Amino acid sequence: MSGTLEVYRHSTVGFEIPLPTGWKLSEEQEGCALVAVEPPREEPHLRASVVVTIEAPAAEQSFDEWTERSVTALGDSLNRLRVIDDEPVEIAGAPARRVLSHYVHPQFGGVNLEQWLLAHGGLGYTISCSSAALEYDDVHEVMSAIAEGMRPA
Questions:
Q1: Of the CATH numbers 3.40.50.1000, 3.40.1000.10, 2.40.128.90, 3.30.420.10, which one belongs to the domain with range 5-148?
Q2: CA 81 to CA 92: how far, in whole Å?
Q3: How far apart are CA 53 and CA 34, in angstroms?
Q4: Structural contact between residues 19 and 8, judged by C-beta atoms closer than 8 angstroms
Q5: In 3D, which of 27, 32, 8 has the Cα closest to residue 18?
Q6: Are the C-beta atoms of residues 1 and 22 closer than 8 Å to each other?
Q7: Which of 77, 87, 96, 151 is the most buried (most CB within 10 A)?
Q8: Strands 24-26 and 49-55: what pairing?
Q9: Domain-by-domain residue ranges, the chain?
Q10: What's the pLDDT tens digit per position in 74-103?
């Protein structure tokens, strides 16, 4: 995956995030602030995607508690989830957490899910970038640029 990234501004929340030109974008997916999906190819495959979710963590919940709850919940919803890497990072000058995991999709097989979790202004933002496991090396730089370019409202 290569190409130009264009900054997308969310219509109601106002966060900004760079996304690949030509990807299908939607703010209409239930439970998601934004879904971006790469264009289809000829052969059936898992299309790379970026999903941004936003929640308001409980005021008494620390950043570490919120991110741990979020990461733990993945294991309850994804088939054979394995965490590969987990590290503190920084996005837009704020502390964040990057988690790379792998799970098995019933149709497409191995999927890599790379998430960046960021708290800003009382909201918890999760940027989830998914790709076929065998394509991870091809998309990693673009997906990292997308997450690192996130600017909360």
A1: 3.40.1000.10
A2: 29
A3: 7
A4: yes
A5: 8
A6: no
A7: 96
A8: unpaired
A9: 5-148
A10: 888 899 999 999 999 999 999 999 999 999
